[in-house]
Every structure is written in C-alpha cells, then in structure tokens.
C-alpha cells in the first residue's frame, strides 16, 4: 500500500509538468516512469534505507523486545499509506518521506513515549517546508528568466532556440548524471570528498559528448522536422547529415458535407451502438482486471474546462509554438533522470520498514542499520510503485500539470531542471529538501513569471497543497498511533 501510494503521488511529480505541457502523453509518461522508477529502485534502492530503518526511532529501546519494533513498522506503513492515498485522491502532492517519518514517530511514541524518537530529524523536516519550495522556485525562476530573455521574447526565437537546445541538453545531462552518481548511490566510494572529482569528471564528459551530438545531429533534425515540416522518422536523428529531403508531412483536410463526414457520422453511430451493447453485457473477471490496470491510462490530465483554470491560463503569456516544441526533447530527458533518481532514493520510504520487519523476523535482533536489503523486497517495492503510478497517478498529475498554472515545454523544462539542481545542491550542503516540495515551488515560480503575475497562479489550490504538507506529519502519525494502540485492545 505504501509503495503503491508513492507511485501514485511522488512519481507523478516527475512527469506532471511533462504531461501537462503536452510534451508526452499520459500513457508515454507511465511507460517511461515504470522503467525509470523500477530501474532506480532495483539498482540503487538498497543503499538508501538506513535512515528509514533505524535513524528515526531509538532502536536501543527495542533490544529486549525486537517484536515491538516489527509492530511499530507495521503500524507506520499503515499510517503512511493511509494518508498518502487519501492525499492522492484529493490531488495533493505531499511528501511520502514526511508521511513515513510521521507514521514511524507516531508508532514510536505509542510504544515508548517521547523518549522513543530522535527529535533532531523532526526539526529538519519542519524547516524543509520552507527551504525546499523557496530554493527550487529561485533556481527555476533563474532558468526560465534566462530562457525568456535570450530565446522566447525575440522574433527569431526559433533560431535562438536551436542554439540553446544543445547547451541546455548538455547541462541537463551533466546535472542529472552527477545527481545519479552522487546522490542516487550515497554509499558508493564516489560520494567521498576525496573522489568527488571523479563524479564531476564523468558528468562533464557525458555532458560534453551529449552537447556535440545534439549540435551535429539533434539540432538539424529538429529544424527540419519542426520548421521545414519534413516527414522524418525518429531514427533519422542518428543519421540526419546523410538523409535527403523527405518532403512535407501530409496535412489531412477535414471534409464537411462529403463522404468522409457521412462515414464519420456513421462510424460514430456504430461506435455508440457497440458501446451500449458492451455495457449491456456482463464483463468477465479478466475484463474487469484489465479495466482496473488501464484505468489510469484513460484519464484526462490536462483539464482546462473549469472557469478557475481557464482564468489562470488566460493570464499566461503564450510563446511561439515551434520554439516550445524544441524544448520537448530536453524535458523528456530531464523527467527520465529525475524519475530514476527518485526511484533509487524514495523507494526506501516503503521498503525500509518492510526490510526492518523481515530482518528482525529472520535474525531476532534489532541491528538493522547496516542490514542488507533482500533483492525480492526491492523488486516488490519497485513493482508496487509502478502499479500505483499506472492506476492512480493521474490525480497528482492533474494538479501539477495544468491546474496550478499554464504549462508548456519551456516552462516544464525549467521546473524539472530547477527541481533537480535544488535537490543536488541542498543535499550536498546538508539542507533538508523534499522532491515534492521542490517541484511544487518550481511550478509556483513558473506561474508567477508567466506574464500575469499573481493572476497566473491558482492560489486556492496552492494553499490547499501547503495545508496538506503541514498535515502530513500529524495525520500519518495519528493513524499510526491509533493502529498501534489496537494492540492493547487485542491484549
């Protein structure tokens, strides 16, 4: 349940702006995220569970009764998952890290009172409510401001964009490769200060190679496909210098009153009749299961038909369509790396307590800080995260996609880059950050810079999200306490 909620809430953060800007479809985002999240969780997730397993409660108090720590973690999972799933149903992007920490605290207090908690960590979490969104907002504002000044606000914005794309692509890959090496695998030797130069060198080398490839291959491919409207396939990007002109993409003209219109109307009538006939039949178990699994794929994310959302979008400045399309490729790559890094780190929120339970059951002691995480638990958590994203992630994607502010590829790129840079920098400085809070702060900054000032941001929705942040710790903790106290009723 907890991993399912992480997939539905946290993972949706990484792709909400990509789907909202129209860069990729919801189905494409789910497909990419499934591989990125599972890959991050399976390959790097084992290195990130130490704090969740043994860094919040005073484990020494459980030495005489290890089974009580098992019960504490069970109650924590129930409390965290209950709150995260409720918040997801309301479309609130909340921090799953804060939820599991609050839930563990609640169960720990129920077991041993206030002495059972390491309170220094709670202070950092409260501080992160301000640090995360503000830092990400400032970085995002800087990136989007530079893009507006150098590219978007000029008549030849498309030509300027062609120059900027290789640079942004190189920066994006450099930052995110370093993010994966340095933060995604915190227990590797590359994290030590003496060898930090190796990680920097690898990231810069990858960024330089990507810049050169984009300059000589991606840049001419995008120019010919977008501006010249050539009928190029995706694989042509790798051989574009040797591809002859392909001719323009055929434009389908809608016929009115002719045979095409008649056939269309007839087809719609047949479709409606077939739909009614299908609804009349009782669905089999397999059909019901397929409908559940694909439910999230068929949901509308870019909701713009309510008056409040339309008002927010009307106050945003719209830039050249072709220029916006240039940034789609960069945004997809940024979202992929953010998702991979998220899977490698935040999977610990779900599998950390489960790994603790399994370790105590197998070894009958509480030495869980350095305990290895079994592979099957990593696989279990990764699959549950993917399932949560597929079936329930559309709720949060709606919020961060277009309901908070108008989103376009350039805006989404700046928001995701701002989030990644903030997480990387603040983690190195030891400042507490939340990926959820960062992407929300970055999206808010985009709204304020979209041309309409305060009117380009949905303040009612934003205040509701902030209230959800504050409620996460106590709400998850209270559910955990209530569940933990049931043991007294059982006795």
TrEMBL record:
Residue intervals passing through the bilayer: 68-87, 125-150, 162-182, 194-218, 375-394, 459-481
Membrane topology, from the record: Multi-pass membrane protein
Main localization category: membrane
UniProt keyword Transmembrane helix, yes or no: yes
Keyword terms, alphabetized: Membrane, Phosphate transport, Transmembrane, Transmembrane helix, Transport
Pfam families per UniProt: PHO4
Subcellular location: Membrane
Cross-referenced InterPro entries: Phos_transporter
Keyword Cytoplasm among record annotations: no
GO CC annotations on file: membrane
GO molecular function, one term: phosphate transmembrane transporter activity
A GO BP annotation: phosphate ion transmembrane transport
Function: Sodium-phosphate symporter.
PANTHER family linked: PHOSPHATE TRANSPORTER
Entry's family note: Belongs to the inorganic phosphate transporter (PiT) (TC 2.A.20) family.
Protein name: Phosphate transporter
């Amino acid at each position: 349940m907890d991993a399912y909620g992480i997939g539905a809430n946290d993972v949706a953060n990484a792709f909400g702006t990509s789907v909202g800007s129209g860069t990729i479809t919801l189905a494409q985002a789910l497909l990419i995220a499934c591989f990125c999240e599972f890959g991050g969780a399976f390959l790097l997730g084992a290195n990130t569970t130490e704090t969740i397993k043994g860094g919040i409660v005073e484990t020494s108090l459980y030495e005489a009764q290890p089974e009580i720590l098992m019960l504490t973690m069970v109650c924590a999972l129930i409390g965290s998952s209950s709150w995260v799933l409720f918040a997801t149903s309301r479309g609130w992007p909340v921090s799953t890290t804060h939820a599991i920490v609050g839930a563990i605290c609640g169960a720990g207090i129920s077991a041993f009172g206030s002495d059972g908690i390491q309170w220094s960590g709670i202070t950092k979490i409260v501080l992160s409510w301000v640090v995360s969104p503000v830092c990400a907002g400032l970085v995002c504002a800087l990136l989007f401001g530079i893009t507006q000044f150098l590219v978007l606000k000029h008549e030849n914005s498309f030509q300027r964009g062609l120059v900027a794309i290789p640079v942004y692509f190189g920066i994006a890959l450099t930052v995110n490769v370093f993010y994966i090496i340095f933060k995604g695998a915190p227990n590797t030797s590359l994290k030590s200060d003496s060898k930090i130069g190796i990680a920097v060198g690898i990231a810069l080398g990858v960024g330089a190679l990507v810049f050169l490839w984009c300059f000589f291959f991606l840049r001419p491919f995008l120019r010919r496909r977008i501006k010249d409207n050539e009928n190029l396939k995706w694989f042509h990007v790798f051989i574009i210098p040797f591809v002859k002109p392909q001719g323009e993409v055929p434009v389908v003209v809608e016929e009115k009153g002719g045979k095409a219109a008649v056939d269309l109307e007839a087809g719609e009538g047949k479709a409606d009749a077939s739909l009614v006939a299908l609804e009349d039949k009782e669905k089999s178990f397999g059909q019901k299961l397929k409908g559940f699994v694909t439910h999230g794929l068929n949901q509308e994310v870019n909701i713009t038909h309510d008056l409040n959302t339309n008002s927010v979008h009307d106050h945003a400045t719209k830039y050249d369509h072709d220029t916006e399309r240039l940034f789609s490729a960069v945004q997809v790559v940024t979202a992929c790396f953010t998702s991979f890094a998220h899977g490698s780190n935040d999977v610990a929120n779900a599998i950390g307590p489960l790994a603790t339970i399994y370790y105590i059951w197998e070894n009958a002691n509480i030495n869980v800080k350095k305990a290895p995480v079994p592979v099957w638990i990593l696989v279990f958590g990764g699959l549950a995260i993917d399932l949560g994203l597929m079936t329930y992630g559309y709720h949060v994607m709606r919020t961060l996609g277009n309901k908070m502010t108008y989103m376009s590829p350039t805006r989404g790129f700046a928001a995701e880059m701002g989030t990644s840079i903030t997480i990387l920098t603040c983690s190195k400085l030891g400042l507490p950050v939340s990926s959820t809070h960062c992407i929300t702060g970055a999206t808010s900054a985009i709204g304020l810079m979209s041309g309409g000032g305060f009117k380009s941001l949905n303040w009612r929705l934003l205040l509701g999200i902030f209230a959800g942040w504050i409620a996460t710790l106590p709400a998850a903790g209270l559910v955990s306490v209530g569940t933990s106290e049931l043991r007294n009723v059982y006795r």
